[in-house]
Design goal:
- Belongs to the binding-protein-dependent transport system permease family. Belongs to the ABC transporter superfamily.
- It is a single chain.
- By secondary structure, the protein is an alpha/beta fold.
- It has 2 domains: 206 residues, MetI-like fold (Orthogonal Bundle); 264 residues, Rossmann fold (3-Layer(aba) Sandwich).
- It contains 23 helices and 13 strands.
- The strands form 2 sheets. The chain has an 8-stranded mixed sheet, with helices on both faces. Strands 1, 2, 3, 5 and 6 form a 5-stranded mixed sheet that branches.
- The structure holds adenosine-5'-diphosphate and magnesium ion (MG).
- Adenosine-5'-diphosphate binds next to strand 2, strand 3 and helix 12.
Length: 628
């Protein structure tokens, strides 16, 4: 909620609308207390007095009534009717929508066809017909306006409810034995409430206008009672000779509707869950780069090298240091593993390579990423676009989320191929079949016509890999590609990646949180903690003799098949939040061997034998060292 409020308060227009509406509301509420003339007392001797005349600040109308007083009383009435109509329409409409959407089936059909019938009539005509049937009068106008808006709410809310009705959390509520009305109240309603508020805030302005329209036609408020619409209607005859009589209520309608709409838009932007994640601020095509130091000299050797890469998220005044100076290198035909707990900055490191971190809030604040010696940080967008999916390709964790659900996998492969290669449709299709065969999908000619949901998780991930291979990349960055798969499928995918790397001389950066996977596939491994590499070296020796206490604890967490009974050591505590990293070692608070010096100043990643370790008191392995 506070996040929504922050987002809202940064929207100047919405804030202005809110302030204006607040003033108008305050005035409307205070009308009975203000020293105003009686709005309904006529005085024909004083007809059409201009604004700023004695005793009538806004002048008088055709019956000599005080316009200021009528305006304020009229505003009060119009606002009350508008809000009442919106509340009634939203309540009834949402109730209909939730019931129809949740129960579904025949009930849904009957209700929604009824709603469709209401929607088939032009809006204002329907309102007119209702008022004609009920008789003129403000209350009947209110009913008419509310009634014609019910279908809008019902349709909207039904759509949302249908989407929610079979979500896992609703099924879970069913399993826990809640009755359907209880589920509606506790599970569905809280989820549709923001949508109702949004729909209301954007339609109140409309409803005030519609009520004013009915009053303007003489079907709403009846003389002498003033509302904004009837004031306009009565002023119509004197529009040319005494324009102030229509300008006064007209301007008020404009102010009210404008302020409500601005406020409504602001509320929608702040509450809409789809916009909350920062989508409102439209991410840039490539991550913003603001290097705070010199570009590091190339010292590492490899086809892809990261040198002192720093990526931060600037959220408000907070700086989340997700990646704090990572240096890595991978050579052709080599597989480099990156391992670490969730949140240690593995994905952000991988995405920074080709500027895929969303900006805002992401900013690359330092370091270099060199592909064949060319620095990609701050490279022109066109260059990055050519590299992405071309020379450097990605494989992500969840292929169901990265494949488009409505296109056949073959078409998606063709699209990936044509994005980088100037091939005709037929050649691209042939290549797509070839790719599916390469990733060992049986029957590729038939499989290219499948939709993603028609494939199993393992098959989909193979398609993901095929897509990464589409443009013969030199480097593949795989971000937890097997985490969503079961172990047997995982083993197949790993052996496939291993074969591909050997046959195509691919450099693979393989991100995972599973040491078993690292052991199977990777030549070298880098262990990340709180945005930094804490240990890096050949996989075998890191696994057999971890030097950093964190690595040692991570390995101790892994159960071993056939290894007999032993205590599995969970690491106590949590990693530090990346916007409040401590001085010195980030692991200090969870380390059994911590000493005061560990908390003073930066600890460098120091070379030790065949690897590099960021620790002042690394673990010792006497037997192993003796053997060396
Ligand atoms: P993982 O190692 O699990 O892949 P990530 O690289 O995704 O971790 O995240 C590293 C850190 O960056 C986490 O602390 C996360 O909270 C933060 N982070 C990631 N994306 C964003 C974002 N869009 N805005 C703010 N913080 C983010
Ligand atoms: Mg991740």
């Amino acid at each position: 909620m506070t996040a929504a409020f922050l987002l809202f308060s940064r929207n100047r227009m919405a804030l202005a609308g809110g302030v204006i509406l607040f003033i108008v509301l305050l005035l409307a509420l205070a009308v009975p207390l203000l020293p105003l003339a009686d709005p309904d007392v006529t005085n024909t001797a004083n007809r059409f007095r201009p604004p700023f005349s004695d005793g009538a600040l806004l002048g008088t109308d055709h019956l000599g009534r005080d316009l200021l007083s009528r305006l304020l009383w009229g505003t009060r009435l119009s606002l009350a009717v508008g809000f009442a109509a919106a509340t009634i329409a939203a309540t009834i409409g949402a109730a209909i929508g939730v019931v129809a959407g949740f129960y579904g089936g025949r009930l849904d059909n009957i209700i929604m066809r009824g709603v469709d019938m209401l929607m088939a009539f032009p809006y204002i005509l329907l309102a007119l017909a209702i008022v004609a049937a009920l008789g003129p009068g403000l209350l009947n106008a209110l009913i008419a306006v509310a009634a014609v808006n019910v279908p809008f709410f019902a349709r909207n809310i039904r759509g949302i409810t249908v989407g929610l009705a079979h979500k896992e959390f609703v099924d879970a509520a069913r399993l826990s034995g809640l009755s359907r009305p209880q589920i509606i109240l506790t599970e569905i309603l809280p989820n549709v409430l923001p949508v109702i508020v949004i729909a209301m805030s954007t339609t109140i302005g409309w409803m005030i206008l519609e009520t004013a329209g009915l009053s303007f036609l003489g079907l709403g408020s009846q003389p002498p009672q003033a509302d904004l619409g009837s004031m306009l209607g009565e002023a119509r005859a004197a529009l040319i000779s005494h324009p102030h009589t229509s300008v006064v209520p007209g301007v008020m309608i404009l102010i009210i509707v404008m302020s409500i709409n601005l406020l409504g838009d602001g509320i929608r932007d702040a509450l809409d869950p789809r916009l909350k994640s920062g989508a409102l601020s439209r991410p840039m095509a490539a991550t913003r780069v603001k290097r705070e130091g010199p570009v590091p000299e190339p010292t590492l050797d490899g086809i892809l090298t990261l040198e002192g890469l720093k990526t931060e998220f600037h959220v408000g005044t907070r700086r989340l240091r997700a990646v704090g100076g990572v240096s890595l290198a991978v050579r052709p035909g080599e597989c480099l593993g990156i391992i670490g707990e969730s949140g240690s900055g593995k994905s952000v490191t991988a995405l920074s390579v080709t500027g895929l971190v969303a900006s805002p809030p992401g900013v690359i604040t330092g370091g270099a990423v060199r592909y064949r010696g060319e620095d990609l940080i701050g490279a022109p967008y066109e260059r990055l676009r050519a590299v992405r999916g071309g020379e450097i390709a990605y494989i992500f964790q969840d292929p169901l989320a990265t494949l488009h659900p409505l296109y056949r996998v073959g078409d998606q492969l063709v699209e990936a191929i044509q994005a980088h290669q100037n091939l005709g449709r037929k050649e691209a299709s042939a290549k797509a079949v070839e790719l599916l065969r390469d990733v060992r999908i049986p029957n590729p000619e038939r499989r290219i016509a499948n939709y993603p949901h028609e494939m199993s998780g393992g098959m989909r991930q193979r398609v993901g890999i095929a897509m990464a291979l589409a443009n013969d990349p030199e480097v593949i960055i795989a971000d937890e590609p097997t985490t969503a798969l079961d172990v047997t499928v995982q083993a197949q995918i790993l052996s496939l990646l291993d074969d591909l790397r050997r046959s195509r001389d691919l450099a693979i950066v393989f991100i995972t949180h599973d040491f078993g996977v690292v052991a199977q596939l990777c030549d070298r491994v880098a262990v990340m903690y709180a945005g930094k590499v804490v240990e890096e070296g050949p996989t075998r020796s890191v696994l057999e003799a971890p030097r950093h206490p964190y690595t040692a604890r991570l390995i101790a967490c892994v159960p071993e098949l056939g290894g007999g009974r032993r205590r599995l050591e969970a690491i106590p505590g949590l990693p530090p939040p990346v916007d409040r990293l401590p001085d010195g070692c980030a692991f200090a608070d969870r380390c059994a061997k911590v000493r005061p010096v560990c908390r003073e100043g930066d600890i460098p990643l120091a070379p030790q034998g065949d690897r590099a370790v960021r620790c002042l008191f690394p673990e010792e392995h006497p037997s192993r060292e003796a053997a060396e």
